[in-house]
């Protein structure tokens, strides 16, 4: 080896190149870590209703370590992501001394029992709020399913000015809705949207117009639905209803008795009649 000048020259050039690279790296490392590139501004973007200034200050003081070049963006993003109301966070540098943080907050849609909150994307998150929200009671991890169904049911019932307070899905996959007025609606396991549409139409055109109070509505009949008035409430009589506003035949209803009410159509008025088939 020592008697081969060309090989020695190649080896010497290699050592020289390595030393130059190491010197440049050391120089860059020292310059980058000098206190001449501090972060002077943290800009927060996003429509924030729950993330407050105190939380931002705490994260900046505790987790944003280093200068413009040495700050770990992944750790910075994770720190902001741990905020209870933060759904998505992005972090990037902006030359020469700024850090831009974009935060998307959760939009609370409902409560997941008494365990968590559900956002509009059908995701669970842990946060505190005193807002009046509907409650979902669903077995397993069907949060996405109940979120989609709640959206459909709300649209239908809004036509009759009915607001949902609770949605329950039983282990047998049977749906039940409770409204803010205490009305309990049994939907069953099939054709839920169609059944609810019929009930909302009948409710808006008859029951609400006559100011009839209903405590329970069973929609699990193919040819109509059954309603029950609150216990202790006097039954409505024909004398209380003007003739021109009498789309149904008024019949006294016992609190314990449930009778099916066929859905009203333009051709025939709605009448109180017993169901002819089993509920589903």
Please describe what this structure looks like.
The protein is of the alpha/beta class and 280 residues long. The chain contains five helices and 13 strands. The strands form two sheets. It has a ten-stranded mixed β-sheet, covered by helices on one side. Strands 1-3-2 form a three-stranded mixed β-sheet. Helix 4 (143-158) runs parallel beside helix 5. It is elongated and about 110 Å long.
Summarize the structure in short.
The chain has about 280 residues and is α/β, with parallel strands linked by helices.
What brief labels describe this structure?
Rossmann fold; 280 residues; Ubiquitin-like (UB roll); 2 domains; 3-stranded mixed β-sheet; 5 helices
> What is the gyration radius calculated from CA atoms?
33 Å
Q: Architecture of the largest domain, according to CATH?
A: 3-Layer(aba) Sandwich
Q: Any low-confidence stretches, pLDDT <50, length ≥5? A: 235-259, 263-276
Mean pLDDT over all positions: 81
Number of strands: 13
CATH superfamily of the largest domain: Cell division protein FtsQ/DivIB
First CA to last CA: what distance?
Answer: 92 Å
* Adjacency order of strands in the biggest sheet: 6-5-4-7-8-9-10-11-12-13
Range of strand content: 15-25%
Considering DSSP H and I runs of 4 or more, what fraction of the residues is helical? 25-40%
Classify the fold: give the CATH topology of the largest domain.
Rossmann fold
CATH secondary-structure class of the largest domain: Alpha Beta
Number of domains: 2
What is the helix/strand order?
HEHHEEEEEEHEEEHEEE
The biggest beta sheet reads: 10 strands, mixed
Number of helices: 5
- The secondary-structure class comes to alpha/beta
The dominant shape is elongated
């Amino acid at each position: 080896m020592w008697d081969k000048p060309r090989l020695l020259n190649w080896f010497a050039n290699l050592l020289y190149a390595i030393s130059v690279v190491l010197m440049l790296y050391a120089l860059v490392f020292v310059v980058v870590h000098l206190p001449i590139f501090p972060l002077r501004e943290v800009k927060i973007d996003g429509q924030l209703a729950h993330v407050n200034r105190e939380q931002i200050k705490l994260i900046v003081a505790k987790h944003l370590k280093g200068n413009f070049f040495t700050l770990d963006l992944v750790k910075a993003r994770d720190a902001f992501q741990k905020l209870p109301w933060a759904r998505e966070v992005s972090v990037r540098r902006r030359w020469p001394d700024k850090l831009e943080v974009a935060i998307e907050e959760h939009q609370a849609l409902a409560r997941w029992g008494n365990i968590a909150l559900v956002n509009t994307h059908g995701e669970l998150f842990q946060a505190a709020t005193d807002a009046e929200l509907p409650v979902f009671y669903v077995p397993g991890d069907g949060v996405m399913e109940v979120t989609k169904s709640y959206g459909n049911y709300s649209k239908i019932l809004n036509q009759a000015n009915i607001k949902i307070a609770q949605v329950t899905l039983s282990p047998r996959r049977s749906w039940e809705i409770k409204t803010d007025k205490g009305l309990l609606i049994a939907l069953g396991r099939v054709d839920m949207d169609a059944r609810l549409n019929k009930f909302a139409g009948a409710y808006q055109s008859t029951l609400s117009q006559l100011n009839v109070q209903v405590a329970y509505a069973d929609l699990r009949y193919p040819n109509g639905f059954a309603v029950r008035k609150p216990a202790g409430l006097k039954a409505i009589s024909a004398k209380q209803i003007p003739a021109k506003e009498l789309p149904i035949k008024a019949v006294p209803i016992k609190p314990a008795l449930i009778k099916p009410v066929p859905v009203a159509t333009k051709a025939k008025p709605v009448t109180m009649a017993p169901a002819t088939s089993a509920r589903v």
